Amino acid sequence: MSLSKRRKVDTECRTFQEKWTCSYMFTEVNGKPVCLVCQQQVSVLKEYNIRHHYETQHGEKHNSLHGELRKQKVNEMMARLKKQQSVFTRSREASDAAVKASYLIASQIAMASQPYSDGEFIKNCLLTAAEIVCLETRHAFANISLTRNTVADRISELSADLDHQLKRKVGSFVAFSVAIDESTDITDVAQLAIFIRGVDKTLNVTEEFLELVPMIDTTTAEDIFSSVVGALDRVGADWSRAVSLATDGAPSMIGKNTGVVTKFRDKVQAANGGGNFWTFHCILHQEALCSKLLRMDHVMEVVVRTVNFIRARGLNHRQFDSFLSDCNIIHGVPYHTNVRWLSRGAVLKRFVDLRDEIGQFMEKKGKTVQELQCHLWLQDLGFMVDITEHLNILNKMLQGRKKIVTQYYDSIRAFKLKLGLWETQVASGDPAHFPCLKDMCAASVNSDVKRYKEKISGLLMEFEKRFQVFSKLERDFAVFRSPFTVKASDLPVAMQLEIIDLQCDVELKDRFASVSLDTFYKYLLPGYPALTALGAKTLSMFGTTYLCEQVFSLMNINKTKLRSKLTHKHLNEILKLAASQDMMPHIDALVQDKRCQVSRANSKQDE
To answer: Is 560 left (phi over 0), alpha (psi -120 to 50) or beta?
Structure first.
């Protein structure tokens, strides 16, 4: 049929007439005329076409039927057609349900970091349970395809759907930032984790895992930069809208001339015409580096040596636990590892709590710890316990997902003020906020709290030095956090009038007090373009590479010695599902293109 004729037919608004059912044995299904005898569909809803089909195909056989006999025959054929339709519908629904279950179980396997082969184990469990609980529905569970290859395909399709969603979101970003970090997997392949955090024009924040890029050969700044560029270009990121980059602070990342940060900044500023671009050395890493300035190795060396003597040998560990049990003490001492930032505080705390028991046990073993009898060493131990506890509290505050960069700034600023307070108090001989040190000094006749002032002063100076980027952003952060208290005259000209209008808006002021910051700035649309632009940039910033560290943990759980052959493609797909935060795969849409595929092995089992 030509295009002109098709348009003419479409504009005629033809409708099926009930009299055709009895006259020509036709009915209407989904807007199309269908023959009740042969169930063939006529392309055009027109009486001539319907009559022609009936007379040429079925007239000779059914023209002899008249009156009630003809009606009865038509009703029988109608009932048969409806039964066939209902069977097909139920079959299709059962097929869709089986495929959907296959997707959901595959998603759970990926999120639980389990091997693909667990799909068959799960199916066997389902079939076993069905035989006992609901034998009549066992065939429905048998139709769920969970072979190893099927699970791999399902995870691949779910990951591709998430990737497609992320591409659409990235295309709508008015501002975005990137966080990158590097680690090595079980096969000694360097893996580069990339996260993106973006804000669209409605100020909705998206923070998602972008990609895990294997660095097969070298890991130079050029290699890392090329990998980041490739990942961002793949999702269609607009480089002119990049706001900041967070890294782990490695030399290849922050090198002044050829580092990734320098290359990234040059590319962004070439795209945005030389605008501002900020870089953050992960705040968690910075805080850990600051704590190393304390340099109280004479304390840590004794603690680690003693703990390792107890924990590293099975007999010593069992005997020590038995000794503690006799003293009605449940918990022993944990291992210390430099990789885990919070472990030092846990070890020191337990060592102090069990110092008497440890001293007695070591003496029985002929390894007397002389330092436990030295009051000055115990005071240093008490100071280390307290200051490490304060640092650990800060560290935990800096962890977490979806934090606004100003929250990191507030935590660091508060800690620097605390250091200033402690410095003043300790200089006057008052360890008010150092309870363990205070106890150690109370138990000693020869105590000198003032000598710890230098340690606190050095820690404060190190914090000031390492977090200079915040001082450069302090004005912008002040406007973002407290737009109703800043002075208009202290701000850029483009923002002054908007701030005055905002501060005179009582309704918005009440709203500011009742909602979170990321929600409040949505209420400024579209009347405050300069303020909302500042809000978008601030909301998009990463302050840490915490999310990258979480992905590396997932990577190590998935790619183990038993799964060392897991391909880079499959590892990436698993991590996209496991690390996804807000996005969910559109499983119902994927099911529409699938049909239930029962594996041959399961088919034989069901026979």
So the answer is: beta
Q: Which residue has the tokens 């004005």?
A: 475
Residue type, 91: S
Considering only CA atoms, which of 466, 585, 500 is closest in space to residue 160?
585
**Inside any domain, residue 7:** no
Domain count, the chain: 4
Decide which of 34, 51, 86 is a domain's last residue.
Answer: 86
HEC secondary structure over 330-384: CCCCCCCCCCCCCHHHHHHHHHHHCHHHHHHHHHHCCCCCHHHHCHHHHHHHHHH
User: Residues for the chain: how many in total?
Assistant: 607
Asked whether residue 6 is domain-assigned, the answer is: no
pTM of the model: 0.79
**How many Å apart are CA 349 and CA 436, to the nearest integer?**
9
pLDDT at residue 607, as a whole number: 36
Rounded CA-CA distance 410/166 in Å is: 31
Per-residue model confidence (pLDDT) at position 86:
61
Instruction: For the chain, list residues with pLDDT below 70.
Output: 1-13, 84-94, 334-343, 595-607
pLDDT at 149: 93
Q: What amino acid is encoded at 129 in this protein?
A: A
Nearest by Cα to 17 from 45, 40, 53 = 45
Q: Which tokens hold the place of 63?
A: 């023209």
Q: Which domain holds residue 194?
A: 87-280+545-607
- DSSP conformation letters of 270-297: HHHTS---EEEE-HHHHHHHHHGGG--H
Same domain, 300 and 423: yes
Q: Are 34 and 40 in contact (CB under 8 A)?
A: yes
What pLDDT, on the 0 to 100 scale, is given for residue 96?
A: 79
